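Exercise 7 asks you to align residues with tokens for two separate proteins.
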Amino acid sequence: MESQNSVVSSKLGRAAKLVGTGAKIGGNYLKFYAKKAVTGSEDKETLHNDNAHDIYESLSNLKGSALKVAQMLSMDKNILPRAYSEKFTMSQYAAPPMSSALVMKTFKSVTGKYPNEIFDNFDGKSIAAASIGQVHKASKGDKQYAVKIQYPGVADSIQSDLKLVKPVANAMFGLSEKEMKKYFEEVEEKLLEETDYELELRRGTEIANSCDSLPNIYFPKYYPEFSNNKVITMDFIDGLHLKEYLLINPSQVEKNQVAQAIWDFYEFQLHELKSIHADPHPGNFLFNENGRVGVIDFGCIKEVPDDFYLNYFPLLIPEIQEETEIIDQLLQNIEIIFEGDSQEVKDELTEAFLRMTKLLSRPFMESEFHFTQEFLDEIYHVGEEIYKIPEVKKPTQPRGSKHALYVNRTYFGIYSMMADLNATINNGEMVWRERLKNSWMTV
């Protein structure tokens, strides 16, 4: 993969890059319509491939929040044509890296020293490159490290990048200005947190310490003495990304084991820590042939407020789903319906939300659940049907708590990985269900 000798960091330069990409996309449409006029062929696959290539090339060169948006979209496989989602998946761990010369310059600018002044050996060629930074292998004595270096200018460009992305979001999802303001504030907050490597180091250490008793899952140790807010150093840990892992044809028993490790990790985080690793794409997990999973990159952590937790997760409990008055109160508390809504709108939204919730809660209904691609397809199909509802497609006011944005994204990412593994998971006792049920059913 070709490396970059510079990263565009100025607002004007980044805007110009996106405008240029828009011009390329316009050219692709002209070619599509010209070919259609001459041959009568509607080869939309070629159009999508050309557009996906041009958009990804632009975003990957810009890095930062622009590329992060592509990464987030790649996880929502029902939103975009396959050509886009497959291309954008590369942003999870295989974006074009900075060149060795730019790496050395960037490292020196944020640490005051070149890498070889700190480490005995430092490989200038990255082993992974994503949206916010790229990772290099280093060693000192008999220790091997993974050193993540943030791309220059990423933190400073977040606000301006999101302003540029807003028209795209509006065109793709039909979001109103109020909705965009509500959700983009949440996205901006999380992206700013991701550029603070000192925060990531602290959170990564805390979660690793809290989850160290969970079976078949492990974490790198972090090294504050070799880290700052733009460089983070941790243990180098071996493992394969999900796509590579599946290519070695592990047995279903082994796939179930790694899936169970991930499932237990997230259930523990959510229901015990009220804080979750909210970036569950395959680039952040390293799978081992011994049935263990390494978890990396704690830049995106969603702390789940108690009031949201206590009003959102009871909706996954079958007994509560049958209680009309409780459901009505819960949906008001998480801003799906409002007192001023007409009864028709309330009924329509309640029915739609419950339909989707019952589907999404299916993995928690039984002691065991088998994830399949067909289950994911069903979720996407129901989602498309619900999106046709007028008050969903063009809401009269923003609906849904902003806290649901990263929680839902997290579970869609987990479900997707579980389906790729064709995994059967065991739910254990699910103590949280009884706890939440009792808090509402005894009211």
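Second protein for Exercise 7:
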Amino acid sequence: MATRPAKCITKNVQKAARSALDAGDGLLRLSPTWVPRSFLQPGKRLKLHPDDLYAFGLHRGGIDERWFGSTTEAANDNRTINEGLSAVIHDGKSFLLRDVVAEFGAEIVGGAIWKKYKKWPVYSKFFDNMGPIPHHMHQNFKQAKLVGREGKPEGYYFPPQHNNVGNNFPYTFMGFEPGTTREQVRRCIADWSKGDNKITSLSRAYQLEVGTGWLIPPAILHAPGSLCTYEPQWGSDVFGMYQNLVEGREVPRELLVKDMPKNKHNDIDFIVDQLDWAGNLDPNFKSNHFLRPIVDTQTDTHADKWIVYGRIDGIQYFSAKELTVAPRGKVTVKDLGANSIIVVQGEGKINDLKLNCPKLIRFHEMTEDEVFVTEPAALRGVTYENTSATEDLVVLRYFGPQVNPHAPNINSKP
């Protein structure tokens, strides 16, 4: 594979971006965006070379995330410049997708999204961990605004191509067991430094199913298990970890309160009240959050399925689809808005851009598996062609808010 340009340009981005947009007819080639987490252990299913799992340095932790179509910075301590931000690669130059959106606005993300948000407000990622992670929540928009951030609803899909093994704990705790009291949860936070606070004993674990997913609103506790997850989500990196020990490893208390006002860091009642009690105690939690793929269109040569869908408080914050094109097949897809794609299997083309799912990626290498599709290109329609005679071409793509009003709701019949 080719090596990516060493540095993103920040001057004359408009000229470079216009050249890329014209050459790709509205398609932008993106390079891999790797994100480490100091408190987690990589699951080794991102196709990143094993020698590069700690490419940011051991002190930064292992790389267990790859972000797609991101204009959102990772909220990591000691982060490198532009960490979490996707870069466009064209004609030997590298420049941030965020800068392209700032320069061209509606031409990239669409008029409705640009008018309301003045940015690309969502992103997706692969999250890949060896074991479970702490029972945590993501703040809602009102809560996150207290610290100058945005809330984060998120969706999950477990792609088969990245889950040949389930790793250590393919189960996820979600919410609380009905009947759990506020005082029980308060005690878990008050006992943070006294050993295992046992907050997951108040929860219920669900066995994760490859090829399915979940929709998780803000302020809902969840302790994701060890499947590799494709996660369309709002463009924010806020969270609060409510579990203090995971597999015997300490979770620093600062990760509980990192996105709460400083004057509330020791206010246990405030911390407990950040949780959505009705949502966490929902007796029908699975039926109200679990996602099975739903076929949208299907022919002899392709199948296009909804994999992340549904609304939170009546709002479709994001949606995602999985497109499968049969060997030697070809299909033109017209979408209602901009989308960002990642190839998880096979080889082929999107219009004239080559698509190829890599087997192994070095940290500084370029790939041919990630593309941002601007709204004008999506509306015109892009053609996916499978150039293999033997293997399916499989592409995941996610969309911005309110782009797909016809997408199914949770509990829709497949």
